[in-house]
Batch of 2 targets.
Target 1
Amino acid sequence: MPEDILDVAIIGCGPAGLQAAIHACGKKAQVAVFGRPEKSSLYKAHVANFCCYEKVVPGQALLDAGRIQAESLGADFVTEDIVETKFDNERFVLSTEAGKIFTSRSLIMAMGAARKKLRVKGEKELVGRGVSYCVDCDATFFRGMDVAVVGNESAAVSGALTLLGFAKKVFLVCRELNISKRLREQLNRSDVQVISDRWVKEIIGSDKVEGLLLTENQSLDVQGVFVELGAKGAMELAANLGVMFDAETFSFIETNKKQETNLPGLYAAGDITGQPWQMAKAVGEGCVAGINAAEYAKKLSELEDK
Amino acid sequence: MLEVDDSNFEAKILKADKPALVDFWAPWCGPCKAIGPVVKELEETYGDKMVFAKCNVDQSPNTPTKYSIRAIPTLILFKNGEVFDQVVGAVPKAHIEQLVKKAL
């Protein structure tokens, strides 16, 4: 990368992130896009209602084309999940799953609305009684206990590694892991016990978690279950910075017409800002966010030069 | 907002002459940061009829254990020294407001 500091960092490489990158590059900003395209909800979709495309188009083809387009305009792509965001000394600081650090003048959150619930018996009933959705928040309550983490991606694996510092035994219940090589090596070297040939059928316990029932009737005695599906999403990455959420559901990032959040330099676009779950809405918001983030970064950098 | 810990929890919350809503939180918890301002807003509206307090679980290990807290943010509503109701996680303001109204 020619410069150490990015003008615009974009988390998420679905339609909102790609369109934001294209427009930010159009403003001559230094742009990097983070994330894995196969996690976009567009990846497996077939688009039949996007303006100017008369025929049904596979989502994957659109994402591929968008990346080539953004790259040709100068955007860099880092195909890793972001596991931590901080705001430090007027800069957004991002850490990737492989431990790389990037700093940026502005940040666009476009990582979509991921599914967070396992949807198994016992899950809803035992939330806060051993079922948790946030390793960073709740690891401390499981000191000396046996716990399980459920999930296939960076949030689950980095969560399991974090829990080793608190819990007695840590199990990772997963299917095929979709993580960076470096994170996989860290996992292999660790004491995390990986169960990759079973999935969770039920969470057992009356007033607190007592164990898991896995497929093929295997049971696992644990006092805690951390559900960490997908990559870290809005609540994990944005709440930490102090971002406001929508009043109605408290799940989506609140933005104005310029796609600004309550924090200067931080923008959000696409599914992460709420319904409708449509590519057209995502690219529209991405366009606005990309332009405004690039302009914000430019102003900031002019001030720095003075 | 009132800050409570292991040493004054009984006096300030359990023996309060009004219902009390306690926000159990920690500085490392993102969702706690999201819910904090919401509780503050509710205090502005209902502060004369109810005690609003926050308890940092990092500094008060005993109280969270006593109430079997395993996740934060957890909001517990106390009435007459007993747990009246509770809610876990970052939830919408309307949801907490319902809880508050129920206790008044």
Target 2
Amino acid sequence: MGHKRSVKDIVITTGLWLAAAVIVGVLFVIVAYVFAKGISAINFEFIFQAPKRAGQEGGISTAIVGTLYLTLVSILIAVPIGVGAAVYLQEYANSRSKFAYVVGLTAETLAGIPSILYGLFGFVFFVIFLGMGWSILSGSMTLAIMILPTITRTAQEAILSVPREYRENSLALGATLWQTISKVVLPSALPGIVTGIILSVGRAVGETAALILTAGSSLNMPMTLGDLARTMAVHLYVLAMEGLSMERAFGTAFLIVVMVLIINYLANFSLRRLSNSMK
Amino acid sequence: MTITIDQNKLKMKSKDLEVFYQEFQALHSVHMDIEVNKVTALIGPSGCGKSTFLRTLNRLNELIEGTTIKGQVMLDDIPIYDKEVDVVDLRKRVGMVFQKPSVFPMSIYENVAYGPRIHGIKKKSHLNEIVEKSLIAANLWDEVKDRLNSPAARMSGGQQQRMVIARVLAVDPEVILMDEPASALDPISTSKLEELIGELKTNYTIVIVTHNMQQAARVSDYTGFFLNGQLVEFNRTDELFVNPLDKRTEDYITGRFG
């Protein structure tokens, strides 16, 4: 009996290990492939120069700026709304309120909608109806709506995980609910909130469909919020789909991966410094 | 059987106090007098209503959805459930220490300065003074004076609980409520805490909930015994433990149940 169990045990353990290894393997293969195919395109000019001849020559500096610009503006729009909604739902709304239930359900539904539908909505509403045209602002607002559910849900989870005792202690010291939230609850929930923002940044950086419809795909350097812009992901798509240059498409992909890694690292690093210092 | 206290020495008082959580009645018509600069202990088995009663004294029960409170609680001559009473002011005057020491994820200094800052004190020198005074009063100053800026969570459990008391003292309350403050502490930390309670009553009125009857006997001047949401007996501690008047009190303190 004991012998049989141990064989079964080994088989199961190996199987589960393999399942875990597949995850690492897939990531490794993708990253390695992108690096191998893309690294030859990377040089100083590729990073710091504007594209020429539709991207067949020159660099992708305008797309890098466009990506950072769109991502930053969309985060700036979505974070206050998302975190604000999360605070309302967790701290102010009655847990049995209909409104809170509807908001929660809506956020969940919004999270499952394909991005192209957001793009279509953004195109009809921001670009045409509000007359904002293809622009950083239209694109950012569309992205902001897209990432809002993620930011709200992760912020809600983070706020929920803050010990109830913190609130009781703060309120018992005579703090108001808002003082308690702003000085104790939100600082404690910050790591979780930042995790949600990082996930959202990843999604914003990688988005193409919604942005082609709302921010356009201009190769000029975007300056104001009203300018058109092309992100790196859109640039990659155009380079690959129109057969302009596979090497440069992979070079762009390489830089997207690097950018996401840098953003993740910076966010984690500053977060660790911030939260470890007081634990 | 409950005794009444000389009205001139009264700090707080409850009258016909009833608390409901939804349909469940947690307290039945509780009358209790709390004397100024004394320690009043609340004892009784789990779920008897002693913590519920404690939390009516600073209106912390209101945080639980579906709570209804009837009757009256007085702080000096103010009915604290009156519409005009500002709950923030009330909680400044009636501080609270909880079961588990809950330090905020900040430095020791910031934890103690939290209350005063909230209440509008900004001057650094004034804050320094309050922090020092509060930590001295909580018998913690000598242990932490060289590391005020290190995280509060790195202190031992006993130190954390004394820091929580310092944080309450920093708000300059008149009454301090303690909800089983020693239940998470080791014996040495517990005796330090009990010693501290004895010192604090010179300047503060203390109400303490405890599971530990020896502790109630050691630290308190008055004791109230709760059972099933009723205040069964309230008397001077030396009287209640030596000469209980109610059969149920006697059964409880002699360990026949609970």
